[in-house]
């Protein structure tokens, strides 16, 4: 099977296996200074961090990126954090995602509501100690470790993706993929049958801040299909929309 690689896109770096094993955290916070501080502290601690600034954007990012943990502000524009939490828990793809709520509302009744809709932890703002916050995050992750081990690997139609080891395989053969190809395949295979738009796949495979044309994703899909050989038709083209992994 051919493993010829396309020329690398500008500003993209292929990470090593350790970098790919980072826990994915989505920070949902509309107050930018706090969002930036959380992002900095989490990245400094070794987490892979993305951000959303309102409830609707949070739902879209959560279902696309499938983060391990969501830091969720309660007082959000468009959709409140409580409503976002309800919808995440009602969706099969995000129902087990760890959710740590952040709120300026510290009354017992407010916290009861947060836990009632499915939050795993509740932190009152302002955050007094980021060291303590990170320890609470680690405690949540330890509590959920068995579930993470199950969700790290996904297999469908003989194609297996292992997020922690950064390994994709077809039967007994390991596919030699770039970071972008790996993330593209992982995004598609974790929700088989779902049609992803090109913009969604650019965000998932290349990063939300990457300035590229939507058609760039077609180049990555062609390269991925070539490496998948006889299984290439598992990645189906959805005319006028984008791509999906065969259900």
TrEMBL record:
Keyword check for Transcription: yes
Keyword Nucleus found = no
> What GO molecular function annotation could you give as one example from this UniProt entry?
transcription cis-regulatory region binding
SUPFAM superfamilies recorded: C-terminal effector domain of the bipartite response regulators (SSF46894), CheY-like (SSF52172)
Identify the residues that the record assigns to the OmpR/PhoB-type domain, covering every copy.
151-247
Q: 4-aspartylphosphate occurs at which residues?
A: 73
InterPro entries assigned to the protein according to its UniProt record, in alphabetical order: CheY-like_superfamily (IPR011006), OmpR/PhoB-type_DNA-bd (IPR001867), Sig_transdc_resp-reg_C-effctor (IPR016032), Sig_transdc_resp-reg_receiver (IPR001789), WalR-like (IPR039420), WH-like_DNA-bd_sf (IPR036388)
Q: Which organism is it from?
A: Rubripirellula lacrimiformis
The UniProt record lists the Response regulatory domain at 24-140
Residues the UniProt record assigns to the DNA-binding region sit at 151-247
Chain coiled-coil ranges: none
SMART domains recorded: REC (SM00448), Trans_reg_C (SM00862)
One Gene Ontology term of the biological-process aspect is: regulation of DNA-templated transcription
Q: Which UniProt keywords apply?
A: DNA-binding, Phosphoprotein, Transcription, Transcription regulation, Two-component regulatory system
Q: Give the CC-aspect GO terms.
A: cytosol; protein-DNA complex
Protein name according to UniProt: Phosphate regulon transcriptional regulatory protein PhoB
């Amino acid at each position: 099977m051919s493993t010829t690689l396309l020329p690398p896109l500008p500003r993209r770096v292929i990470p090593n296996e350790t970098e790919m094993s980072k826990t994915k955290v989505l920070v949902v916070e509309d107050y930018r200074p706090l969002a930036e501080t959380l992002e900095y502290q989490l990245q400094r601690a070794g987490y892979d961090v993305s951000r959303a600034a309102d409830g609707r954007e949070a739902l879209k990012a959560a279902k696309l990126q499938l983060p391990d943990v969501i830091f969720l502000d309660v007082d959000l524009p468009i959709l409140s954090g409580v409503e976002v939490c309800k919808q995440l828990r009602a969706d099969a793809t995000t129902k087990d995602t760890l959710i740590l709520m952040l709120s300026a509302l510290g009354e017992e009744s407010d916290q009861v509501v947060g836990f009632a809709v499915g939050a795993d932890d509740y932190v009152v703002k302002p955050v007094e100690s980021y060291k303590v916050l990170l320890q609470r995050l680690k405690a949540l992750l330890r509590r959920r470790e068995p579930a993470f081990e199950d969700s790290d690997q996904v297999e469908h139609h003989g194609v297996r993706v292992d997020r922690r080891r950064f390994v994709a395989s077809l039967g007994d053969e390991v596919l030699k993929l770039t970071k972008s190809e790996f993330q593209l395949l992982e995004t598609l295979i974790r929700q088989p049958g779902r049609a992803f738009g090109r913009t969604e796949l650019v965000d998932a495979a290349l990063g939300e801040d990457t300035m590229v044309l939507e058609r760039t994703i077609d180049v990555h899909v062609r390269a991925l299909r070539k490496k998948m050989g006889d299984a290439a038709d598992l990645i189906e083209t959805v005319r006028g929309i984008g791509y999906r992994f065969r259900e």
